[in-house]
Specification:
The structure holds two protein chains of two kinds.
Chain A: H1 2-9, H2 13-17, H3 22-37
Chain B: E1 8-9, E2 22-24, H1 29-38, H2 45-60, E3 63-66, E4 69-70, E5 75-76, H3 81-85, H4 89-104, H5 121-135
Antiparallel strand pairs in B: 1-2, 2-3, 4-5
Helix pairs in contact in B: 1-2
The chains are: A mainly alpha, B mainly alpha.
């Protein structure tokens, strides 16, 4: 998960780790929205 | 003029913690991983003790305030690592769970999608009646 997020946001894990955990909530919400849009 | 990010107010599902109010700093991803790992306590007593101390240190440095008191004279328990260590493991783990939930959890989607504002015939008639009664 960490590496996928680093690829997505073009940053190093050390930078990602300092981000607020709120970021994970936003990623979850986006995933839920995408799942709903695809009718799952 | 200074600016400070909002803090988290924890909510507890377990009814035994009804009335407990805890304010805590926001949770960086690094710390989220660390407290999650530490809260899975090992089976070896020495290891468990070490984990418990690390966990209470980590949570304690982020605690801002709580309304926890003890004894008949309702003496305030300090909102720090020592205060946490004066409580049982269940209490500490409840704080950790509520903290990680407050920082990352997402409510499940609502069951029905929006109807794009279209009303059913029954709803439309009801709305007409309400509007008429308000205009008359």
């Amino acid at each position: 998960m960490v590496l996928a997020l680093c690829e997505r946001f073009h940053c190093l894990p050390s930078v990602l780790m300092e981000e607020d955990a709120e970021l994970l909530r936003l990623v979850k919400i986006e995933a839920l929205g995408r799942r709903q849009d695809s009718g799952e | 003029m200074s600016y400070q990010r909002s803090t988290l107010k924890l909510a507890f599902e377990d009814p035994q913690f009804d009335g407990l109010e805890v304010r805590i700093k926001r949770l960086p991803i690094k710390k989220l991983f660390a407290v999650t790992e530490l809260s899975e306590l090992g089976e070896d007593l020495g290891e468990m003790r070490e984990q418990f101390f690390q966990l209470t240190d980590m949570v304690g440095e982020s605690l801002l305030s709580w309304n926890l008191t003890e004894g008949d004279d309702e003496e305030a328990v300090p909102a720090d690592a020592e205060g946490l260590r004066s409580q049982d493991i269940e209490f500490v783990l409840a704080i950790v769970t509520a903290w990680t939930e407050a920082a990352t959890s997402v409510s499940p989607p609502l069951p029905n999608r929006s109807t794009s504002g279209q009303l059913s015939p029954g709803q439309f008639e009801l709305m007409e009646r309400v509007l008429e009664s308000q205009l008359s």
